[in-house]
Amino acid sequence: MMHPTVLVTGAAKRVGRVLCEHFAQKGWNVVLHYNESKKEALALAKKFSEDYPDQKFCVVQGDMSLGEITAQKMMSVLPEGVSKLDALINNASVFDPGALAKTEGELLRREFIINFETPFFLMRDFYLKYKSGVIVNILDTRVHNEDSSYAAYSLAKKSLMHLTKMAALEWAPDMRVNGVAPGPVLPPMGKDDSWLSNVVAQTPLKRAVGLDNLVNSVYFLITNNSITGQIINCDSGAHLI
């Protein structure tokens, strides 16, 4: 039996880990990308190999702040015996605060290279190498509003949203490209549950986005071959306000 293969960036922790678990359970081979979380990535790949011995798993290290070099490195790694990637999920990101007036060059460059530039080159190289497949970009409900508290981050994610639609049009019919824009799922690094509760309280549904709901949204876009250029707002209605 042939198993499809997915590359997940930022795979070792948080949302990325749950995405990998879901795809492994669904019968996929998984390439787990990590930057600094080598121990966690290797442990997760080992667990998958034990739980799903008919599937293949491997890890690849890549510093998302290095742009095109990292994309080329990641696109060159496949599990032993696997000849191609079928799907790419751009999940890795950084989330740094800063209003427009307080955004300096270093912050702007960091947010754009990690949240937009490296995903761009991963998408480009995935298309050029395989010519077919499916891409899902993890965005943010902030792409729909003008809140500037995380200005550089929001601008990078807005750019990634427009890239999603542009690539969907240019690369059709052979490759599908979609996005999921989550709302409050987990508190960001350095924040606690009270931060998340405050954000959740402002959403129309007044509930946190379940990790299962977010992952199911991604999987739906990966497997529904009639959809391209779509953004699913899995955000408890936050895009409405």
Keyword list:
241 residues; alpha/beta; Rossmann fold; seven-stranded parallel beta sheet; 7 helices
Question: Could you provide a short overview of the structure?
Answer:
This protein is an alpha/beta fold and 241 residues long.
Written account of the structure:
By secondary structure, the chain is α/β, with parallel strands linked by helices. The protein has one domain: Rossmann fold (3-Layer(aba) Sandwich), CATH 3.40.50. It is 42% helix and 15% strand. Strands 3-2-1-4-5-6-7 form a seven-stranded parallel sheet, sandwiched between helices. Helix 4 (105-130) links the parallel strand 4 and strand 5. Helix 1 (14-25) packs across helix 7, helix 3 packs parallel to helix 4 (105-130) and helix 4 packs parallel to helix 5. The chain starts with a strand and ends in a 7-residue tail after the last strand. The mean pLDDT is 96.
Order of helices and strands: EHEHEHEHEHEHHE
The low-confidence runs, each spanning 5 or more residues with pLDDT under 50, are: none
| Number of DSSP-assigned strands | 7
| Average predicted local confidence, pLDDT | 96
Whole-Å distance between the termini?
A: 47 Å
What fraction strand? 15-25%
The CATH topology comes to Rossmann fold
Query: What's the CATH superfamily, by name?
Result: NAD(P)-binding Rossmann-like Domain
Percent helix among the residues? 40-55%
Radius of gyration: 17 Å
